[in-house]
């Protein structure tokens, strides 16, 4: 499939930078008004950055964790890969515990463990260099996957379409270019997407603070809506595709993504809009049969009590703050990955592309 995208225009933001002795993360708590990189010189600093959302988005936290293992290796005095493996394990476990829902985190750490096992088998191999090469490969492959998915996903979208997206799935959430936002970039570049709507994504406002900012950087006209305006917008006929990312896609196609995604899928089905999930194969978890088995992260209810640092809720009010939900596979029209597209996903269709 041809790739008509001008990446010099549409792929300029890099949220993760390896300097050779530290990891720099574009601090997403401070965007859009401050564009500052947070320097992490230790593995635990990376785990903290993941937990506190300085870096967020499923692929990005996997990549950051892989670099966190590289930092753990620098803190470890072991001479061989075999000696290093048990010494690194506590750091890997702390990285893994930083957030529970996005499978990319555990996936990236498994890749790093496998690289260490390969280094143990290789006589005289520099195991620290092997880990660094693996982290770089995870990052490079994510970018390539995003670009491939952009072209594939955009091929499903007809001319003159309006799209609605949720949360932030762009460069900030990945190695670069983005998943769902990559499809939107590609669809805008090809001229097929005529209107882009971004939901603000309460309570952390990934849509309002991050997606709207990214689209501005690219000069892509977009309209921000309150999350509660989505059904009303779809009723007007302005949206042909809802395009979202994923934190974990189960063996039957059930998909965990940012809280609010499920209600968008219900609304899309009701209004005759199509629903597309875009994610690299590192987000596919064929070991989890269905969505009810996914651990849904619940964050501090305090995230609901304030807007922009100003308290808006009376003292003493209780709140529940699950930050992901699961969209049942029956509401999904297409799952787009770099390996191909699964239309009307179910266990058989998923197995046909991903095996067991
Ligand atoms: O809590 P976040 O901001 O890490 O949640 C992010 C999302 O839900 C994204 O949609 C998902 O990770 C895909 S990012 C390419």
UniProtKB/TrEMBL annotation:
It catalyses: 5-(methylsulfanyl)-alpha-D-ribose 1-phosphate = 5-(methylsulfanyl)-D-ribulose 1-phosphate. Substrate binds at residues 56-58, 99, 206, 257-258. Keywords: Amino-acid biosynthesis, Isomerase, Methionine biosynthesis. The keyword Isomerase applies. It holds the Pfam family IF-2B. The keyword Transport does not apply. InterPro entries: IF-2B-related (IPR000649), IF-M1Pi (IPR005251), IF_2B-like_C (IPR042529), Initiation_fac_2B_a/b/d (IPR011559), M1Pi_N (IPR027363), NagB/RpiA_transferase-like (IPR037171). It comes from the Bacteria. One of its GO terms (molecular function) is S-methyl-5-thioribose-1-phosphate isomerase activity. Its EC number is 5.3.1.23. The record marks 167 as: Transition state stabilizer. Coiled coil: none annotated. The active site is at 247 (proton donor). Pathway: Amino-acid biosynthesis; L-methionine biosynthesis via salvage pathway; L-methionine from S-methyl-5-thio-alpha-D-ribose 1-phosphate: step 1/6. Belongs to the EIF-2B alpha/beta/delta subunits family. MtnA subfamily. This is Methylthioribose-1-phosphate isomerase.
């Amino acid at each position: 499939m041809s790739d008509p995208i001008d990446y010099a225009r549409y792929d300029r933001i890099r949220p993760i930078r390896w300097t050779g002795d530290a990891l720099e993360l574009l601090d997403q708590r401070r965007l859009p008004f401050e564009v500052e990189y947070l320097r992490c010189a230790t593995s635990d600093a990376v785990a903290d950055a993941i937990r506190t959302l300085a870096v967020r988005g499923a692929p990005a936290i996997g990549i950051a964790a892989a670099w966190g293992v590289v930092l753990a290796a620098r803190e470890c005095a072991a001479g061989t890969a075999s000696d290093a493996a048990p010494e690194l394990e506590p750091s890997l476990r702390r990285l893994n515990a930083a957030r529970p829902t996005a499978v990319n985190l555990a996936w990236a750490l498994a890749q790093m463990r496998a690289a260490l096992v390969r280094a143990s088998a290789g006589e005289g191999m520099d195991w620290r260099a092997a880990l660094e090469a693996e982290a770089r490969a995870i990052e490079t492959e994510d970018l390539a996957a995003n670009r491939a998915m952009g072209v594939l996903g955009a091929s499903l979208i007809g001319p003159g379409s309006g799209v609605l997206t949720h949360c932030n799935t762009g460069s900030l959430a990945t190695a670069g270019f983005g998943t769902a936002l990559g499809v939107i970039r590609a669809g805008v570049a090809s001229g097929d997407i005529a209107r882009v709507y971004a939901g603000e994504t309460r309570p952390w406002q990934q849509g309002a603070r991050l997606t709207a900012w990214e689209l501005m950087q690219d000069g892509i006209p977009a309209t921000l809506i309150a999350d509660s305006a989505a059904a009303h917008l779809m009723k007007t006929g302005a949206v042909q595709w809802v395009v979202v990312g994923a934190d974990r896609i189960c063996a039957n196609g059930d998909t965990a993504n940012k809280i609010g995604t499920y209600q968008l899928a219900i609304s899309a089905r009701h209004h005759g809009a199509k629903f597309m999930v875009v994610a690299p194969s590192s987000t596919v978890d064929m070991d989890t049969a269905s969505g009810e088995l996914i651990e849904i992260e619940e964050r501090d209810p305090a995230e609901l009590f304030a807007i922009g640092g100003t308290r808006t809720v009376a003292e003493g009010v209780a709140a529940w703050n699950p930050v992901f939900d699961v969209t049942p596979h029956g509401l999904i029209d297409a799952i787009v990955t770099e390996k191909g597209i699964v239309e009307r996903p179910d266990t058989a269709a998923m197995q046909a592309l991903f095996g067991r």
